[in-house]
Amino acid sequence: MTAPLLKVEDLTISLASDGGSLPLVKSLSFEIAAGETLCLVGESGCGKSLTALAIIGLLNRRIMRASGGGIFFEGRDLLSADAEAMRRLRGDRLAMVFQEPMTSLNPVQQVGRQISEVIVEHRGTSEREAEREAVRLLDLVRIPDAARRARDFPHQLSGGMRQRVMIAMALALRPALLIADEPTTALDVTIQAQVLALMDELRREFGTALLLITHDLGVVAEMADRVLVLYAGRAVEEAPVEQLFDQPTHPYTRGLLDAIRQLLKPDIERLAEIPGTVPVPAKLDRGCSFAERCGLAMPICGEKRPVLGPRGSRHSAACWLGHLPVEQPA
Amino acid sequence: MTPALEVAHLSKTFAARRGPFGLLGRRVVRAVEDVSFTVEASRTLALVGESGCGKTTIGRMVVRLAIPNAGSITVEGEDFTRLSGEALRRKRQRVQMVFQDPFACLNARMTAEAIVAEPLVNFGLGDAATRRRRVRQLFDQVGLPQTFLDRLPHHMSGGQRQRLGIARALAAKPAVIVADEAVAALDVSIRSQILNLLKDLQRETGVAYLFISHDLSVVRYLADEIAVMYLGRIVEKGPVRSVFDTPAHPYTQALIGAIPASHPRERRRRALLDGEVPSAAALPIGCPFRTRCPLATDICSREPPPLVTVRHGHAAACHHIHANEMTTGGTTT
Ligand SMILES: Nc1ncnc2c1ncn2[C@@H]1O[C@H](COP(=O)(O)OP(=O)(O)O)[C@@H](O)[C@H]1O
Ligand SMILES: Nc1ncnc2c1ncn2[C@@H]1O[C@H](COP(=O)(O)OP(=O)(O)O)[C@@H](O)[C@H]1O
Ligand code: SF4
Ligand SMILES: [Mg+2]
Ligand SMILES: [Mg+2]
C-alpha cells in the first residue's frame, strides 16, 4: 500500500491557560488517501475547526499548542515545519475554504485580482496570464459572466457566489488536499446542493483529496468516502460511509443519525432525543465523555475511557458496548 | 371556531437605495405580495422558502414589529391592523415571537428570571408574587432547572437560551407564537429537543404556531400545513403530507430535491435548481420563478400564475401544474 496523503498521528491541541493547559482535541489519529473525501462530523465545540487549523498551520500559536506524533503530509511533518514552509505549502499543496468567506476575502480588492495574485506569487506567471487564469477559474466554478464578475468586490456577490470564489481561489494552484470547514452551513439548501455538487466534480477532475468538516450528516451522506465522528475532542467512531449509515455502533453516532432520519419521516409521534448538552472542555475527564448523555451507559462507562477498537473492516468505535452486538431499529 | 390567526392579502414594500452609496436613487423592494393564510388554535403553519423571500417580514408584521402596506392581520377575530391604544396593547399580548438567536433579543445583563418576567411586567400581568410563581412554572414547563433563575444568558448553552426565549414568549399566554428560524442555529441533537418541546407546549396550551424556516427538512415533524414562498408570494400551500409527497409547484419540487440524502445510497450528485433568487427589487414579469424554472414557457413570462387548488386543501401557483404532475408523477423520494 502506498503512503497516505495525510496522516494525523496522536494529535492533541491544548489551550494555554493560567492554570496550565486545557486539552481541546485529544489524541486524534486519522489518514486521508489521495483523491479521497473524509468527512469530520460532530456538533459544535467538538474540535473540528481546531483540527483543520492545526493541519493548515493557522492555529493561534499564542494560545494554542498542537502536539503529539505528527501531521504527515506528502511525507513531511507539518507539526515541526516552520512558518515560512507552511506559508509556501498553503494555497499550493494545501488549501482551505471557511464557512464565512468574508473572513478570508479582502473586502477592498476585486475578486479576480485576489485569485490572480495567488497565482503570480506561487507560480511566478505574468499578471496578464494570471488574470486570464482567474477568469477561467471563476468560470469553472460557474460564476455567470465570469469576466465581468472578476472585477466585483466581495460585497457585490451573494453568499453562494463568494463561496464559489473561495473554491476557485483554493483550487487555483491544484492543491493535493482541500480542507473545507462547514463550507455550505451558511447557505440555503438549494445553493448548498450546487456548491456540494461543484466541489465533488472538481475533486474528481483534479484528483484533490477533501477533508470536509460538517455537523450535518445529510452532507456526509452526499459527499463522504469515509467518516470520522468526533465527540468532545475525541474520535468516537470511524467507518466507510455506507458502513457508518448501515451499522453505526457508537450511541452518539446513532443518535445523530436518528435525528436526521426521523425528521423526514411522516407521522413521527415524537423525535428521539440525545438528552443534555455537549460537555464544556475540562481538565479532568474520566470515563467516556458521552456517558452522561448515553441511554446505554453502564457503570464502567463513567470510570474508564473506552479506546477505539475494531468493529469490522476499516470500522472502529470507542464504546464499552463494543463487545455486545447492537440491535439496529428497522 | 375563530382561527387564532388570519392573514389576508398582506403586502409590504420597502424603499431601498440603489447603486453605491445610494447614488442611483431609490427603488421599491416588494418584500411581501398579496399573502393570505389561516392558522387555527393548536395548529402549526410552516412558512418556508430560500432567504430573502419575505418570511421574516411576514413574521414581523404579525407581531406588529412592522406595519403592512396593505391587507389585514386578524388575531382571534379582531383585525390587528385597525387597533390602537389600549386595545392594541391587549392584542399584542396575544401574539409573541421566538427568534433564531436569543442573544440578539435578550439583554445580556438581565437574569434569566428577569427576561422571562419582562413581558408580564410590560403587560401589567399579576403582582410581584404571582409573577414569581408564573416564572417558576414556566421554567418547569420548558425544562429549565430552577437553579438557572439568576443566570445570565451568556452563561447558558444555545439550547438553554432557546428554552428561555420560548418561556418568555409563553409568559403572557399568547394565542399565537411566531417562531422565526427558531432551530436554525442549534446542533442536531438540541434541535430535536426543542422541536419536541414546541410540540409538547402546543398540546398543553393550544397555542398556534407560525413556524418560519428556510430549511424545509425541519418543518415536517411540527407542521400541519406548509406555505412555500418565493419572492414575496406564496407559490404553494397545503397539508404537510400532501406538499411533501405530491408537491405541485416546480419550486417546491426543487426545494424538496435539494434536501441532502439521508443515506449515501440515495445521493444526488447534482443540483436540481440553477442560479439564485433574483432581487426582490427587480421582480420578473409574469411568474416570479420563471428565471429558474425548468418548465417555463411564453405564458410564464407574460402572466403571473394564480394560486389554484390541485387537491383538497392544497393549492399552487403555476401555469403548468398539470403537465408537471403528469411528467413527474409529483413524487419525491
Ligand atoms: N481561541 C479559543 N479560545 C478558547 N477556546 C477555544 C478557542 N477556539 C476553540 N476553543 C474551544 O475549543 C473547542 C473546540 O472548538 P472548535 O474546534 O472550534 O469546534 P468545532 O469546529 O467542532 O465547532 C470548543 O470547546 C471551543 O470553545
Ligand atoms: N428593513 C428593510 N429595508 C429594506 N429591505 C428589506 C428590509 N427588510 C427586508 N427587506 C428585503 O425584503 C426581502 C424579504 O426579506 P426577509 O423578510 O428578511 O426574507 P426572509 O426572512 O425570507 O429571508 C428581501 O429582499 C430583503 O432584502
Ligand atoms: S408558471 Fe411557468 S415559470 Fe412559473 S413555475 Fe410554473 S412553469 Fe415555471
Ligand atoms: Mg467549527
Ligand atoms: Mg428571515
Q: What is the gist of this entry?
A:
The complex is a heterodimer of chains A (330) and B (333). Chain A is α/β, with parallel strands linked by helices.
Question: How would you describe this structure to a colleague?
Answer:
The complex is a heterodimer of chains A (330) and B (333). Chain A contains ten helices and 13 strands. Chain A is of the alpha/beta class. Chain A has an eight-stranded mixed β-sheet, sandwiched between helices. In chain A, strands 1, 2, 4, 5 and 6 form a five-stranded antiparallel β-sheet that branches. In chain A, strand 5 (70-73) and strand 6 (76-77) form a beta hairpin. In chain A, helix 3 packs across helix 4 (127-140) and helix 6 runs parallel beside helix 7. The longest helix of chain A has 18 residues, at 189-206. Chain B has a domain at 229-333. Chain B is built from eleven helices and twelve strands. In chain B, strands 6-7-8-3-9-10-12-11 form an eight-stranded mixed β-sheet, sandwiched between helices. In chain B, strands 2-1-4-5 form a four-stranded antiparallel β-sheet. The longest helix of chain B has 18 residues, at 188-205. Chain B is globular and about 65 Å long. The chains are: A alpha/beta (330), B alpha/beta (333). At the A-B interface, helix 7, helix 8, helix 9 and helix 10 of A face helix 7, helix 8 and helix 9 of B. The complex binds adenosine-5'-diphosphate (ADP) (2 copies), iron/sulfur cluster and magnesium ion (2 copies). One magnesium ion (MG) binds at residues 55-56 of chain B.
